[in-house]
From TrEMBL:
Any one Gene Ontology molecular-function term assigned to this protein's record: NAD binding
Entry-linked PANTHER family: GLYCEROL-3-PHOSPHATE DEHYDROGENASE, GLYCEROL-3-PHOSPHATE DEHYDROGENASE [NAD(+)] 2, CHLOROPLASTIC
Organism annotation: Thermocrinis albus (strain DSM 14484 / JCM 11386 / HI 11/12)
Reaction catalyzed: sn-glycerol 3-phosphate + NADP(+) = dihydroxyacetone phosphate + NADPH + H(+); sn-glycerol 3-phosphate + NAD(+) = dihydroxyacetone phosphate + NADH + H(+)
Localization annotation: Cytoplasm
Protein name (Swiss-Prot/TrEMBL): Glycerol-3-phosphate dehydrogenase [NAD(P)+]
Principal location: cytoplasm
């Protein structure tokens, strides 16, 4: 049994807290929203009425309380809020497992890089893969990957999460696992747009495949291993989010394709949509590193308010015919 602090009582932080408490761990959740904290304190999860909340979960609005309590910290905050939220705390010597998926807009950094800037001696791992919060909360079968640099810590954290319905594979490619979970959100938006425009199943399959190729091109330039993108945190999560209306990123794209403005789509969803921010960093990185990223550029232009049909046509018509792999 371990004491696990969870930073962020949103859907993902809460689903993982439910799972960890079911494994017999003591969980303390931190969130800025008092209604989330009060609900968890009453023994009710704030999001899913049909999911029982096990004993072993407490919650607080005091960040330092969670840091002091935890043997392992699980980070499930929206990526753009991480630096500000953690700027005054000392995480040196802590094991931090990031479950957030995205890049910081201002710096284009991954979450582990942000954490290392804040506390250079913390040990960061990343938990990622195809895992909608609601399904994990309900205890439905799920497989994810845990990446990090220290074998012993990976095995320890794997043992905390592992259950018959929550399989955790290990990887030493932290860069690749973080990038897979971040970049797939941008491709999921593109697939949603395509479906919203009524382009059909062929178009979505093409976008997933070419989107994966784009993720690999950028990922390799940033130091990731190619094979990681064909695993759970890459293709696995891409297939999940790019084909399901449970995905906020896909839904955002779908609404844009149906003619909603960005602000009306975001308001309708009412939850964090990481791809909207990550695409800014992706476009910047692809320019700096001279990587072809036509799908990300198309998403970027859409988010600037350009007409979806026009952007889609340009995406299809602009590139001259070329080989599939070159
Ligand atoms: N929902 C899902 O199925 C999955 C989400 N993720 C990732 O998890 C991260 C969080 O997503 P969700 O939990 O779904 O978002 P959400 O929109 O359900 O909740 C976000 C939570 O963060 C809290 N928050 C925001 N700023 C904060 C701060 N400064 N301090 C404390 N709390 C703060 C909010 O009060 C809210 O409760 C994202 O990076 C997302 O990509 C990853 C896998 C699955
Ligand atoms: O990453 C996710 C599932 O693995 C959740 O995706 P969305 O943030 O698009 O809902």
């Amino acid at each position: 049994m371990a004491r696990i602090g969870v930073l962020g009582g949103g859907r993902w932080g809460t689903a993982l807290s439910l799972h960890l408490a079911r494994q017999g761990h003591q969980v303390l959740v931190f969130d800025i929203k008092s209604e989330v904290v009060e609900s968890l304190r009453r023994g009710q999860n704030p999001y899913w009425e049909d999911v029982d909340t096990p004993k072993g979960i407490d919650a607080t609005t005091e960040l330092l309380e969670v840091i002091g309590f935890s043997q392992v910290l699980l980070l499930a905050l929206p990526v753009q809020s991480i630096r500000e939220a953690l700027k005054d705390v000392d995480l040196n010597g802590k094991k931090v497992v990031s479950a957030s998926k995205g890049l910081e807009v201002e710096t284009s950094l991954r979450v582990s890089q942000i954490l290392k800037e804040i506390s250079p001696h913390c040990e960061v791992m990343c938990l990622s893969g195809p895992s909608f919060a609601r399904e994990v909360a309900k205890g439905l079968p799920t497989a994810v990957v845990l990446a990090g640099e220290e074998e012993e810590s990976l095995r320890y954290v794997q043992s905390l999460f592992f259950s018959p319905y929550f399989r955790v594979y290990l990887s030493t490619d932290l860069v690749g696992v973080e990038l897979g979970g971040s970049l797939k959100n941008v491709v999921a938006i593109a697939c949603g747009v395509s479906d919203g425009l009524g382009f059909g199943d062929n178009a979505r399959a093409a976008l997933i495949t070419r989107g994966l190729a784009e993720m690999v091109r950028l990922g390799e330039k940033l130091g990731a291993k190619r094979e990681t993108f064909y695993g759970l945190s890459g293709l696995g999560d891409l297939v999940l989010t790019a084909t399901s209306s449970q995905s906020r990123n896909y839904t955002l794209g779908y609404l844009l394709g149906k003619g909603h403005s960005l602000s009306s789509a975001l308001e309708k969803i009412g939850q964090v949509v990481e791809g909207v921010h990550t695409v800014m960093a992706v476009v910047k990185l692809s320019q700096e590193l001279d990587v072809r990223a036509p799908i990300s550029y198309a998403v970027y232009r859409l988010l600037q308010g350009e007409d979806p049909l026009q952007v889609a046509h340009q995406l299809l018509m602009n590139p001259p015919p070329h080989r599939e792999f070159e």
